[in-house]
Amino acid sequence: MSRTLIALLLASLLAPLAQAAELVVYTERREPLVKPLFERYEKETGTTVRLLSDGAPVLIERIAAEGANTRADIFMAVDAGNLWQAAERGLLAPTRSAKLEAAIPANLRDPQGRWFALSQRARTLVHSTERVKPAELSSYEALAAPQWKGRLCLRSSKKVYNQSLVATMIERLGAERTEQVVRGWVANLATAPFADDTLLAKAIAAGQCDVGIINTYYLGRLQHDEPGFPVQVFWADQAGAGAHVNISGAGIVAASKNKAAAQAFLEWLASPAVQADFASVNFEIPASPGVALDPVVAAWGPFRGDAVNVSVAGQRQAEAVRLMDRAGWR
Questions:
Q1: Residue 312: exposure state from Cβ atoms within 10 A (0-12, 13-18, ≥19)
Q2: Rounded to whole angstroms, how far apart are CA atoms 143 and 248?
C-alpha cells in the first residue's frame, strides 16, 4: 500500500476525531448561565464548546438559512415551544440515547427524541406574604374569581412563557373554558401587564397587587439577594393537574457534522452532578429527578408538575396567542 493511500486512510479515520474537538452551541440561554459549564466540559474532555447567543426565533432562522453549511451542532432554548418550532421545521435530528431517556422523564422530552429538557422552569402562583394566606389560593383558574378583582398582576401576553401556559391550559381545559379563565384574569388586573416577572414580583412586594403568575426562578433571584423578600411561591393545582412546567432544553442540529460528539455532550449535561449545576445557577429545577436542589428552591417545598408533554406548548402556541388576543390580554 502506497504512503499516499495510507495517509488518506488515516486522514479519513481521524477526521471525525478532529471534528469532535470542537462543538458549536447556538443558545438562547444567557451566556453567564452556560459558559462555566462549557468550560468545565472542555477541561474534562478536551472538546472545546463555543457558543453563539441570541433569541430563539433569530437562531432558528439562522440555522435554517445556513442549511448544510451551518456551524451549529446543538440548539439550546428556554421554552419548549421554541424547541418544538425548530424540530417541526426539520432543524433538529432525532436522537436515540439510553442515557438521555433514562435521565429525562418522557413528558420533558420530544416524543421523537429531537430535543430534551435540561432544567424545569415552573410557572406558578406567587403571593404577598403580608396580604394573602396560602389557604386562599388553589389553582390558576381560581385567580379569575371575583375575590381577586383589582389584586392580580400578570406579565405581558407577548412573552412566550405565558403563551406556553395558556397552550397547556387549552390542552387540559379546552379552548372555551380557558378563554373564560383568561378573560377573568384580565378583568381582575390591578394594573397593566408587566414587561417581565421581576417587575411583577416587586409590584406585589410594593403593594401594587397581591397575587401573580411568574417563573419561579425570577423570585429565586430576588429571595437570594434579599432574604425576607415579602413574596412567596404557591404551587398551583396540586389537587388537580399540577403546576405548569416549561423547560430549558436542547437538541442536536440536523445538519451537524459532529452528531456523536453532540450527543455525548447532551448526555453529560443530563448527568446528575451537571444537572445540579445547570439548574442551580438560575434557581431552576433539574430536569432529572432526584438531583439536589439549590437551597432557595428547596425552601419552596416539593410540588407535583403537570404531566402533560411539554411539546403541547408548541403545538397549541398559535391557538393560545389568538385566544389571549380575543380575551384582551395585552
A1: buried
A2: 27
Q: What is the pTM of this model?
A: 0.92
Cβ atoms 87, 115 nearer than 8 A:
yes
Q: Which residues of 188-213 are buried (b: 16+ CB within 10 A; e: fewer)?
A: bbbeebbeebeebbbbbbeeebbbbb
Per-residue pLDDT of 94-130, as tens digits, reads: 999 999 999 999 999 999 999 999 999 999 999 999 9
Q: Is 183 exposed, middle or buried (0-12, 13-18, 19+ CB in 10 A)?
A: middle
Per-residue pLDDT of 274-286, as tens digits, reads 999 999 999 999 9
Distance of CA 26 to the CA centre of its chain: 15
What's the CA gap between 50 and 18, in Å, rounded?
15
Length of the chain measured in residues: 330
Q: For residue 311, which phi and psi values (nearest 5 degrees)? A: -65, -20
